[in-house]
């Protein structure tokens, strides 16, 4: 007989780890994919591997991971606020810690609830920095990703293809 764990908007059986459904794997792939987006942004901004960040502007070479994006928001609705934050060391460190932490948590499937909250906050701030949007009145990829992060947290997506089923994670709510 399975023991039931109460979670927001759903009831999931503890023995569910043994009975994965296709939707569990879809959520797991979404979790890992979104985690890789965050983790890759961290790696490319840190080392300047030439995808979005050239080597000369890499964080390890003295570049600021927030300057490019935030300086470009000066003409936007909240541009004064965000462009004033560009290049400040504490903003760079918080941003990079957020990218690395959210990315690792999602890829590994541990701390997905915390990662979903932190990632959603980061994405909403990036969305706000771009207002007004030029291609849609309010919707863009930042909002879509934030919705997916909330879905990952509600679905308990760390338990499939991740470390979310480790006993220490299962008995420690903040690690889920």
- The total count of strands amounts to 2
Order of helices and strands: EEHHHHHHH
Gross geometry: globular
Number of helices: 7
Radius of gyration: 18 Å
Q: Taking all residues together, what is the mean pLDDT?
A: 89
Distance between the termini: 23 Å
| Portion of residues within helices | 40-55%
Can you list the strand order of the major beta sheet?
1-2
* Count of separate structural domains: 1
Low-confidence stretches: 9-17
Quaternary structure? single chain
Q: Sheet with the most strands?
A: 2 strands, antiparallel
Structural class: mainly alpha
- The fraction of residues assigned to DSSP E strands is under 5%
Task: Please give a structural write-up.
- With 176 residues, the chain is mainly alpha-helical.
- The protein has one domain.
- The chain is built from 7 helices and 2 strands, in the order E-E-H-H-H-H-H-H-H.
- A two-stranded antiparallel ribbon has the order 1-2.
- A hairpin with a 2-residue loop joins strand 1 and strand 2 (10-13).
- Helix 1 (22-47) packs antiparallel against helix 4 and helix 4 packs across helix 5 (112-129).
- The radius of gyration is 18 Å and the shape is globular.
- Mean pLDDT is 89; it is low at 9-17.
């Amino acid at each position: 007989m399975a023991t039931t764990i109460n979670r927001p908007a759903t009831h999931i059986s503890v023995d569910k780890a043994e009975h994965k459904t296709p939707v569990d794997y879809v959520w797991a792939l979404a979790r890992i994919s979104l985690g890789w987006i965050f983790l890759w942004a961290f790696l490319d901004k840190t080392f300047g591997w030439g995808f979005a960040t050239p080597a000369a502007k890499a964080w390890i070479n003295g570049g600021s991971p927030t300057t490019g994006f935030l300086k470009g928001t000066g003409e936007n609705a909240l541009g004064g606020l965000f462009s004033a934050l560009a290049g400040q060391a504490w903003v760079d460190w918080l941003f990079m810690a957020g990218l690395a932490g959210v990315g690792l948590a999602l890829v590994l499937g541990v701390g997905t609830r915390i990662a979903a909250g932190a990632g959603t906050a980061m994405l909403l701030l990036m969305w706000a920095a771009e207002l007004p949007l030029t291609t849609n009145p309010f919707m863009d990829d930042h909002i879509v990703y934030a919705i997916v992060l909330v879905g990952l947290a509600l679905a308990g997506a760390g338990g499939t293809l991740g470390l979310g089923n480790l006993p220490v994670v299962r008995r420690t709510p903040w690690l889920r």
